[in-house]
Amino acid sequence: MKLLLDTHLAFWWQTGDPRLTQNIRAVIENSIQPPFVSRASLWELTIKAGLGKLRIDLPTFIAQVDAMGFAWLPIENAHILQISQLPIFADHKNPFDRLLVAQS
Question: Which SUPFAM superfamilies match (predicted)?
Answer without folding.
Answer: PIN domain-like (SSF88723)
